[in-house]
């Protein structure tokens, strides 16, 4: 065990008003000298993502209202994209989210009440959101949709749409599985009854013509049970040769389950995060379908800025697809650094 | 329980006073809190052995035991607390809280992960103390106090993680010092024959054994039953009620920390939205295992069997290959069966 290198300078440094966290860290390291890790941990200095210039257009307020389930890495990417665009466009971004459709609709109403200049929303449950969207349009506030609502955004008078169609993405995954020579595929739904996830697996079932697809429900709030359930399924049906996860953390857990069950099935997934990039590099996960959540958040905000300042609509009335793109060993290096920064 | 004096009606003489009556060994066994659960567990086990061929393999048992163990370790703390007459709704997110705190403290302060874990233990015990202290000081039911804690911890898990790491999951700490040894303690596997067993199963059995000893053979065990049965009488005969209850909440904090450490070292990073809803799984395990919702009654062995039933039902459905759309329904039906079996068995045994 090695001592922390900056021991001696600890007192002098804190006098120079180091950030409290660092000071506390040094104090802790000093008191429990053997307790420091010389490997890993937070980088000493970090640089913040992409730093384009800033627009000098009048400051506008945009509300982004999603159906995010709190604490999911996927939504974090969306939000980062939105924040990057807002910072660049001189926009005040008001982000709010609620997974329950009625609550999400209420959030839209409060955005209308506070007279924002534009609204970006997700339409996971389009019917429930329709009245709120109409109210916004009636109040003269431009609305764009992203991430979900591919089938219904246009009917509701939403101007633009950025995202992927989950069924098409699922079909693309299914087609690739057929090419990969899969015979028996397991599609894992981590939130039973969630529309987007169900459509992905439905798409996989439709697109995969080389054999049969089976669906498995797991509880993503309890990772040990996710691991055990996938293990159980692999033990129950040794003929499963491909596992399709619908989120990066589930894919990484499936890799573990595979080892437990002694199965040599291939793991593939939808959506990425930084840990998944390593798994694709090492070959634990074969490929991921990327719908580019950062891009969805970014375009949603940026498109409103374009509309407010220049009357443009991206896509000109047709949906703008951000996916499905495949990430595999052939292109992983190109995006690895961005993923490490938490923007892919 | 038999309350009538045993009368020999043919001779009209009292054979024995009911208070000093010796129970038959079989009956003493049958009225134990966990016996109904054991009966339910056996039925469910046999049932899945019949309907799900892969369930019969030792590998399947290892998987079921692992799924049961992480629920089971928490259920020990939760059942003791329940026997002591209190509830804790913050347990699910408290597990996530412990692992997030350990990970972030170690990562951001460059500490050995063991030290990070130790500091997280202090925080976890602190949450337990906070719950216990408020319940005892304010006399507000623990249901409401811990519901508030549940919400606050959910918020802390998300907000603090985001504030510190800039994203909603913690960074991987797998390359930090102490990780490998900590992983051996909290999240490793060992082989018995060809079957790989997770170490949490051992911890689960060990903690159950220790807590059973404490509950059945020590003064503290008596105190726990006493404060759960009747708090005022307990206080009147000199039981330190406040200390016992705060201690129980803190023990729940310890269990949450332990499971949290397993999560951290098994999965390297922690998503901050985890754990919501798991508090019910722990309570379910305790209740199936014979703990009464009103307190003063139950065992940790029962909670162990309860967790095992939940694990079996959860994974057995997968081994049976049933239509996944019905998954939750089957799970619910299975648990309902276990609880009813438990309940009716107990009342049947008590009447005899």
Automatic annotation (TrEMBL), chain A:
It is found in: Cell envelope. The lineage of its organism: Bacteria, Bacillati, Actinomycetota, Actinomycetes, Mycobacteriales. Belongs to the bacterial solute-binding protein 2 family. This is Substrate-binding domain-containing protein. Residues 37-56 are annotated as: Disordered. InterPro entries: Bact_Solute-Bind_Prot2, Peripla_BP_I, SBP_2_dom. Residues 64-310 form the Periplasmic binding protein domain.
Automatic annotation (TrEMBL), chain B:
The keyword Iron does not apply. It is a multi-pass membrane protein. Keywords: Cell inner membrane, Cell membrane, Membrane, Sugar transport, Transmembrane, Transmembrane helix, Transport. Part of the binding-protein-dependent transport system for D-xylose. Probably responsible for the translocation of the substrate across the membrane. This is Xylose transport system permease protein XylH. Pfam families: BPD_transp_2 (PF02653). Its main location: membrane. The chain crosses the membrane at residues 29-55, 61-82, 89-107, 113-135, 142-160, 195-216, 246-268, 280-298, 326-345. It is found in: Cell membrane. It comes from the Bacteria. InterPro entries: ABC_transp_permease.
């Amino acid at each position: 065990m090695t001592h922390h290198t900056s021991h001696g300078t600890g007192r002098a440094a804190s006098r120079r008003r180091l950030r409290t966290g660092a000071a506390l860290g040094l104090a802790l390291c000093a008191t429990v000298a053997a307790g420091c890790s010389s490997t890993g941990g937070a980088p000493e200095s970090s640089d913040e993502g992409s730093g384009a210039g800033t627009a000098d257009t009048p400051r506008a307020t945009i509300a982004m209202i999603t159906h995010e389930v709190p604490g999911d890495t996927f939504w974090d990417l969306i939000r980062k994209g939105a924040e990057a665009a807002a910072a660049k466009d001189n926009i005040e971004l008001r982000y709010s989210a609620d997974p329950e459709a009625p609550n999400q609709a209420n959030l839209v109403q409060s955005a209308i009440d506070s007279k924002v200049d534009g609204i970006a929303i997700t339409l996971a449950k389009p019917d429930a959101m329709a009245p709120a969207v109409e109210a916004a349009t009636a109040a003269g506030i431009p609305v764009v949709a992203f991430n979900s609502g591919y089938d219904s955004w246009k009917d509701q008078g939403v101007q633009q749409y950025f995202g992927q169609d989950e069924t098409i993405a699922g079909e693309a995954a299914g087609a690739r599985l057929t090419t990969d020579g899969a015979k028996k595929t397991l599609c894992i739904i981590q939130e039973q009854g969630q529309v987007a996830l169900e459509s992905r697996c439905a798409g996989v079932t439709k697109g995969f013509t080389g054999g049969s697809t089976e669906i498995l429900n797991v509880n993503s709030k309890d990772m040990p049970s996710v691991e055990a359930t996938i293990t159980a399924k692999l033990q129950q049906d040794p003929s499963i040769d491909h596992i399709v996860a619908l989120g990066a953390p589930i894919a990484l857990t499936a890799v573990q389950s595979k080892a437990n069950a002694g199965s040599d099935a291939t793991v593939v997934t939808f959506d990425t995060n930084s840990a998944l990039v390593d798994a694709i590099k090492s070959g634990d996960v074969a490929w991921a379908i990327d719908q580019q959540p950062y891009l969805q958040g970014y375009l949603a905000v940026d498109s409103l800025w374009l509309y407010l300042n220049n009357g443009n609509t991206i896509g000109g009335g047709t949906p703008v697809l951000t996916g499905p793109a495949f990430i595999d060993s052939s292109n992983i290096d190109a995006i690895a650094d961005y993923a490490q920064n938490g923007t892919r | 329980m038999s309350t009538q004096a045993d009368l020999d009606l043919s001779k009209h003489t009292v054979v024995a006073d009911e208070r000093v009556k010796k129970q038959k060994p079989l009956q003493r066994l049958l009225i134990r809190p966990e016996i109904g659960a054991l009966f339910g567990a056996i039925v469910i086990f046999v049932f899945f052995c019949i309907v799900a061929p892969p369930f019969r393999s030792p590998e399947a048992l290892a998987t079921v035991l692992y799924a049961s163990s992480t629920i089971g370790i928490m259920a020990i703390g939760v059942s003791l607390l329940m026997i002591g007459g209190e509830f804790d709704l913050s347990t699910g997110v408290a597990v996530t809280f412990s692992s997030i705190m350990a990970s972030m403290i170690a990562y951001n302060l460059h500490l050995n992960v063991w030290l990070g874990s130790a500091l997280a233990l202090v925080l976890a015990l602190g949450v337990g103390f906070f719950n216990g202290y408020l319940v005892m000081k304010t006399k507000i039911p623990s249901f409401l106090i811990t519901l508030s804690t549940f919400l606050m911890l959910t918020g802390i898990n998300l907000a603090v993680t985001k504030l510190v790491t800039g994203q909603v999951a913690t960074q991987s700490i797998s390359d930090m010092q102490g990780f490998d040894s900590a992983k051996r303690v909290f999240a490793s596997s060992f082989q018995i024959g060809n079957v790989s067993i997770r170490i949490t199963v051992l911890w689960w059995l060990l903690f159950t054994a220790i807590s059973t000893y404490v509950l059945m053979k020590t003064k503290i065990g008596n105190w726990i039953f006493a404060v759960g049965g009747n708090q005022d009488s307990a206080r009147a005969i000199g039981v330190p009620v406040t200390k016992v209850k705060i201690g129980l909440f803190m023990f729940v904090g310890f269990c949450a920390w332990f499971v949290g450490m397993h999560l951290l070292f098994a999965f390297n990073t922690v998503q901050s939205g985890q754990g919501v809803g798991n508090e019910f799984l722990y309570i379910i395990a305790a209740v199936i295992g014979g703990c009464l919702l009103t307190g003063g009654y139950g065992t940790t062995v029962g909670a162990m069997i309860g967790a095992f039933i939940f694990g079996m039902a959860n994974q057995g459905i997968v081994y049976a290959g049933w239509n996944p759309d019905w998954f939750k329904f089957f799970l619910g039906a299975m648990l309902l069966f276990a609880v009813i079996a438990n309940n009716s068995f107990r009342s049947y045994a008590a009447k005899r």
